Amino acid sequence: MGLSGRLAVRGFDIDPIGIREARMGRYLVPRLLYYDVWLERVRDTLDEYGFTYDFETVLEKHDAPDMSLLYPAKGYYQVDASPIRAGNSAEFAICDLVRDKDIEGSADLIFANNVLYHLPPDRATAAVRKLASVLTDKGVFGLGKTTMSEPTEWAQDTIALLKSEFDLYPIMIKQANEPFIPTLFGRKQEYATTSIGLEELKGYEHPMWAVRS
Fold first, then answer.
1. Among residues 141, 157, 147, which one has the least CA distance to residue 198?
2. Fold topology of 96-201
């Protein structure tokens, strides 16, 4: 299925408040976190992907009592995901990636953003295994920049685990003027010209990711 096809998205979180917000499809952007230049970049990104937003009206907690529990700051802008969800399927459920039963079905794209670094190493590894086990043969697995931004022992062990147990390799995607961080993984046969294995990371010009011998 190409990008023009109907998408089926499933999202999981252990926090019921986060799940409730995701189901609503409306998000609050704390006003004080952004200067004008950043708001312009946010606008460009939202326009590119089809979100609607209101950066003129400043909402307070009483304007969105069901949502503001997640946002302690004062003053918000609202972003609406409804337009990009139209015609697609989006489901969200409370889930403990370590303790709950295995995830049913399979996925072409899996992102584990802003979650693994909150877990002890053994539980984070268990979550990685559970998620990687439902990835399709041509799928892509994303671990997030925050999780993989530094060459910790866990990060390096995880690269080795994904390679040995799931035949997943870092996909070489490097943005201009930014260092390469191994966050996306795919099957080697699908990314033969853009993937690197653990050994190949050694000596790669990167200010932080020089894999230790």
1. 157
2. Rossmann fold (3.40.50)
Closest CA to 210 of 185, 180, 188, 186: 180
How far is residue 54's CA from residue 66's CA, in Å, rounded to a whole number? 18
Give 155-159 contacts, CB < 8 A, sequence gap 24+.
155/182, 156/198, 156/211, 156/212, 157/125, 158/124, 158/125, 158/128, 159/198, 159/201
3-state DSSP assignment of residue 188: coil
Out of 42-51, 52-61, 119-128, which region has the weakest mean confidence (pLDDT)? 52-61
Region(s) of the chain under CATH 3.40.50.150: 96-201
102-147 pLDDT, tens digit each:
788 889 999 998 888 888 999 999 999 999 999 998 889 999 888 8
Half-sphere exposure of 32 (CA within 13 A, CB side): 6
Residues 6+ apart with CB under 8 A from 1: 108
DSSP assignment letter at 176: T
- CA gap 195, 172 in Å, rounded: 5
Instruction: Tell which residue, 179, 173, 170, 175, has the closest CA to residue 201.
Output: 170
